[in-house]
Amino acid sequence: MAKNLKITQVKSVIGTPKDQRATMEALGLKKIRQSVVRPDNPAVRGQAQKVRHLVTVEEID
Fold first, then answer.
1. Shortest CA distance to 1 belongs to which of 40, 39, 57, 56?
2. Above 70 in pLDDT, residue 1?
3. pLDDT of residue 2
4. What is the pTM (predicted TM-score) of this model?
5. What secondary structure letter does DSSP report for 3?
6. What is the spatial distance between Cα 58 and Cα 15, in angstroms, rounded to a whole number?
7. Among 36, 26, 42, 43, which Cα is nearest to 58's?
8. What is the arithmetic mean of pLDDT over 11-19?
9. Which domains does the chain have, with CATH numbers?
10. Which residues, including other chains, have CB under 8 Å from residue 57's CB and lie 6 or more apart?
């Protein structure tokens, strides 16, 4: 398992439910094409899974 995940926002949060917008903000994503690096753990993977249609996820070391 990778140590970190690189999560990149690829779609806008306009028109999405409030809980998905809150998840994006919790991940630290605010703009399209913005990337963040987060630790690879079940909590972060769950957040990424919830908004999988708005982001791309890459495993990095």
1. 40
2. no
3. 76
4. 0.92
5. S
6. 25
7. 36
8. 98
9. 4-60 (3.30.1390.20)
10. 5, 6, 7, 8, 48
By C-alpha distance, which of 8, 1, 58 is closest to 28?
8
CA distance 51 to 2: 20
CA 5, CA 15: separation in Å to the nearest integer? Answer: 26
DSSP string covering 18-38, please?
HHHHHHHHHHT--STT-EEEE
The confidence score (pLDDT) of residue 61 equals 86
At which residue do the structure tokens 């919790």 appear? 26
User: Which tokens in the block code for residue 21?
Assistant: 């917008």
